[in-house]
């Protein structure tokens, strides 16, 4: 038993150094021949539990995995009067550790009567599956924290927490307190590196909460058909703050009205993408004329756009722009006014021929990705990017014309190997500082 325990502890320690599927290879290969007894307390990160005991086939016949959840009471056993209530919680959660963690956090410090009321509501509802259990954690949140939960579910899952705070710095939300609350209630986890992680079941709860709101009051639009109605028919959309639009669910494409974005005064996050490649076409009649001035994030991933807009737009609030996978994109718009832009991703824009010179003076740009831009011929001769930390340009040969380049990015600590090679080959033409 001691050897087995040490083996398990070593496996858990290794999780901090590598990613799955190591546990399956390491644990299953080491322990599948044994009958194992695993005792686990839910106190640390759930990823360790999932990696250690995710599948029963990892352990030999007769093995048992016993999980102790101390989140609700912070002690080994339930106080007097709570024993039967705890049994009901376990039954409702179907022995799912995630459900136990969320329910435990939601019921913590509540009285017996509160437990009884919440459990009775769940047991009497038509939706008694695990999603209904997880919904309890969401329902007990303050309305501001509920909205932050929805934003994470729709836009910010697996994003850096500091980046999310920066994206919402001008909103009315106390993001720092909200993230702390969501983490305390086990609705999200924040890794040691600062990555926000929301379980896919909880993400489903957040997206469902958006669907249940009255259409006229929704601040987030994620239903593709409703988005089409809003963008094509000039419906009242003054309250909309974010749009996440999967165009692959629309068989005939969508033509955006020229007036669609004029009424979206609070629009901050616009993400239009395809989860699968198909011949759908988006005609951007509206955004080509007027970009919402409060826009913070603009994403057109895997789009079929050839251009976005013409001329100079008011982009002073824009912090992230992701056009990756837009195979037909031939032109990047003028970004002179995007003075707060921090991330620009042009990866996979195969048809892109020229990077506009306006990018060379984006002093707050931290990440620039231009991988796989195989048609790129013209690159700014002047890059004064004092805040640039990451430059990626794999399979990209931008220094094609015989001119002198001035490259200034003193804080860049991540320069991909291909970028180093390109700059090295053109060393005589580059003045690098």
UniProtKB/TrEMBL annotation:
Residues 144-211 form the Disease resistance protein Roq1-like winged-helix domain. Keywords: Repeat. It holds the Pfam family WHD_ROQ1. InterPro entries: Apaf_helical, Disease_R_plants, LRR_dom_sf, P-loop_NTPase, WHD_ROQ1-like. The keyword Repeat applies. GO terms for biological process: defense response. This is BnaA09g11200D protein. The lineage of its organism: Eukaryota, Viridiplantae, Streptophyta, Embryophyta, Tracheophyta. The gene is BnaA09g11200D.
